[in-house]
Here is the input.
Amino acid sequence: MNFELLKLLESDARLTPEQLSIMLDISVEKVRADIAELEAAGIILGYKTLIDWEKTERESVSAMIDVKLIPQRDSGFDRVAEKIYNYPEVKAVYLMSGGYDLSVLIEGKTMKEVAYFVAQKLATIDSVMSTATHFVLHKYKDTGVVYETGEVDERGNCN
Amino acid sequence: MIDYSKILSPTVVNTPKSGIRKFFDLMESMDDVVGLTVGQPDFVTPWHIREAGITSLEKGKTYYTSNAGTLELRQEIVNYMSRRFHVNYVPEKEVIVTVGGSEAIDIALRACIEVGDEVIIPTPSFVCYAPLTALCGGVPVTLETKYEDKFKINPEALKAAITPKTKMLVLPYPNNPTGAIMTEDELRDIAEVIKDTNIVVLSDEIYAEMTYGRNHCSFASIDGMWERTIIASGFSKSYAMTGWRLGYICAPKELTEQMLKIHQYGIMSSPTTSQFAAIEALKNGDADIQMMVEEYNRRRRYIYNALKGLGIDSFEPEGAFYIFPNVGKFGMTSDEFCNRLINEQRCAIVPGSAFGAGGEGFARISYAYSIKHITQALERIEAFIKTL
Here is the structure.
């Protein structure tokens, strides 16, 4: 498997097959074929843009919710996880080790909206035993990218 | 009124300013310049290395170390040189930790060169060798390397440059600005020329980790050459630690013993914080080097192909992080080419002529920049050559 290709695309999905071909020293056709194969295998799941919404006019809040569950006969946690991740406002669902079972990342327009979701939709699911909601106050780093670096190239020209 | 001209040493006054400095000054006077001029990594020193420096400060390690550097660091340098380049030194006697590779070069020259001694300096190369030789009263003898030879030293030309006064040969590979390297076989040919002489070799191996497709071969590892090789190297390029100002010398003890006096009186000891960071770098930094070298290699291929696509020839660089394209075909000197490029398209690259004989007709492009930045600069170069 082409790990180097994956690493490059993970860091910048907009690299073109032509650029990737040169950087990896393989043909453009091979790049295209590898990407198609990785997509077909469900290894490359999609391409997105990382946006710092805090810098826009758009109001948004996000929260991490710790969810404790009663496991269900036959399906364990899978069915209830599916019930939760099907809501479009849910951005991520992880099964966790430790003090609680699911970690749910949710995004809403307002705190009220998030609270409503937790109270009306999440807490009412049968096997949900308890929830603890933690609102995100500020994002410093997300998916490997540091927000608000404000870094400029200060390297001196001296050799 | 004081007459400074009577105060200042004529040798220093007659030392020319660095040719690249002039160009950098011009660049800094302009706005919106997209430059490919910087000769240092765009990576920040890896966090675990920075943290080791910080921890040493927190623990109050703010003293001078022994003159040659902490023994722990010298031991790690010795381990590293043996692990990576198969050359062996005794930490107690054959290693000096210096203020960057630059001081290493300086004390090596000062320990050996007297008035009238000749130092053979291959060019194009980094700008410091000839002035530092001249400051010792030595005579820099230029050995021009050629594009046709991929900017490697031609053994015949070297033989012709040797005189009874030749004391030292500088071996600046992997090379700044050309990106040339010398392979083991090519170094053997050099060894053949000097083996029966009394010439010492100053091997500037600061870019040793930045080679692509093959590992760097240290001149000290060539049969019979250890006893006549001074290795000058450092942490700046390999670990992205330029600002820490830390380098080292590895050489036979008869030489280091004398160099240490110059270092002792002139410097005392190298920065202590940097020494602690460097220990961490050598112990746990191999993966960082690999990550950075892989990234440079992608950029190298990218820029080499892109320039070729624009109809600009360069030989494919095999080391350091520079490419040295031939801009002579545009009918201008490299100075003119670079001046017009910056004035007309706000893109800065360094004229090859700044790096000595053999550099005219070429320009140095650094690829220690992100692909995005390189692409932006290449667009400007393309726009410029379309107007020619």
